[in-house]
Amino acid sequence: MSVPTTHFVTLAAVLFAVGAGGVLLRRSGISTLLGIELMLNAVNLTLVAFARQHGDLHGQVFVFFIMAVAAAEVAVGLALLVAIFRHQQSIDVDRLNVLRW
Amino acid sequence: MELAVFFAAAVVAVATGVVAVAHRNPVVNVMSLVVTFFCVAVCYALLAAPFLAAAQILVYAGAILVLFLFVVMLLNAPLAESDQPRKLQRIFGLAAAALVGLGGAALAVVAIPGAGEPVAEGTAAAIGRLLVGPHLLAFELVSVLLLAALVGAMVLVKRKA
Amino acid sequence: MWAELAITAAKLLAVATVLLTCVPIMVWVERRGAAFIQDRLGPNRVGPMGLLQPVIDAVKLFFKEDLTPGGVNPILYTLAPMVSMFVALVTFIVIPFSADAGVEVFGVPLKGIHVAPDLGVGVLYLLAISSLGVYGIVLAGWSSNNKYSLLGGLRSSAQLLSYELSLTMSVLGVILVSGTLNLQEVIARQGPEIWKWHAVTQPIGFIVFLVAAFAETNRLPFDLAEAETELVAGYHVEYSSMRFASFFMSEYINIVTISALTVTLFLGGWQVPWLTATLSGWPLVLVSAGAFAAKVAFLLWLFVWVRWSLPRFRYDQLMQLGWKGLLPLAALNLLIVGVAMGQGWL
Lengths: 101, 161, 346
Description:
The complex is a heterotrimer.
Chain A: H1 5-25, H2 29-54, H3 58-88
Chain B: H1 2-22, H2 26-46, H3 50-75, H4 87-111, H5 124-132, H6 136-156
Chain C: H1 2-37, H2 53-63, H3 74-90, E1 104-105, E2 108-109, H4 122-131, H5 133-143, H6 147-178, H7 183-189, H8 198-201, H9 203-216, H10 241-266, H11 275-278, H12 282-307, H13 315-343
Antiparallel strand pairs in C: 1-2
């Protein structure tokens, strides 16, 4: 194993932090969804790194499922975003407060 | 040699990841995320997961981000002048992200045991056997989920006739 | 290790050179072929039979003014043709051009004229890289600051995405029968006899693949998004000189790639019915490479022939054909292949 698992998991942690920063620090709905995709990729990377360490392919199969679910989630998320845009002419998620008290 | 490739991919991935969440222009965000996903695919190739590397490029970079790009161009939302939340929220957000990142990295360095040997090549045949074997139910459920997402997305964007 | 690297680099260089020389030859074939189909002569003044015409075209394009229109996004405007060229050139590393005859060069096995022979997921890699071709078009359309560009770019990319599905499903039938994603083994699985080639055993899949190939390369009858008479040449209207040449070249290289893929998957690759089963060593490598080139040349002529013989599809007709025609046909093909494999016929 020429590149230790630690390196991959560290990279994944940094990517997850960047993605989390994107979700928390931006108002645009698209940036939120992009941050979510980045976080999902970081988790995928962790799973594959551990799958290699234990010699078990179930980690990779799980990543395959996560990819499929992420595709479904992006489709629905973007459809929601388009519907929101049609309603309020902006993708600022801070303005989605009609149901608030 | 693999270490050099990994470091190159890691540096590019983090740099483009930061650009992807920080830049104002949404098209630049999406394109730099494409590069990030490419680097992640390189990491999968280094981790003996060639099928996942190809699937990552095919699904994530080639389909999901194209959908993002379409929606960005369709919405053509004006670049928000003040796209950032209030000061307090920004501080807390940065702190939370930094905590997660540093915590994860620290755990990675401290808690993972040293390099063992098991590798398990993730070829298409091997993953296929697992998909129709132990994970058959999940496989079928995911196909139903994709159908539900397809119908849901179409219903959400339908204009009232 | 250095010997292997040197051999791979040499193969890469050879393949890239052949690819880039194919473009001017294709330009010449296109213009002379179009002329003969339209009962006229075509370029015949520049060099014998007009053979130097593409060279002069390249010189003309080189000397045109390289302008950047106002109001474009400069990074994306420059990036778009580069993405198209990159995607077009990189797909070639998994296509086997000749037999793996066990020959050795400086003690290292050659493994055929095949740049990446050990890539287990060859077909998947190819599909993945071709799905990235959409970016060049979408970015070109959007960054040009021009309504017609944007419309052309969006239409073209929607077309590419739709036909990519049918393309992938028809390839699935071939993969199902071959049991492997490695292209060299897919060729070996179709024996040298013509009746075992997948074009004969899966004719529906072959037709679907061919139609989808025409749509994927934006060639007539599916070139609405970039024709000069519609949408003012679509997504590359604001590009001139070398950037336009880049798009132009990447389109022809895409055509060569898809033809090579069709030959590999459906027409038996480098095999010739009796010859490749009996030869061995260097003669086998050369004969198989020649056979591959001949088959690809025939398919390239087919692309030119169809372009100048058929009218263009309207955009809604195009999308209907893709979703309501080709995709069900590809699924039917998969069903037939599955049943045939279950019965042991395949």
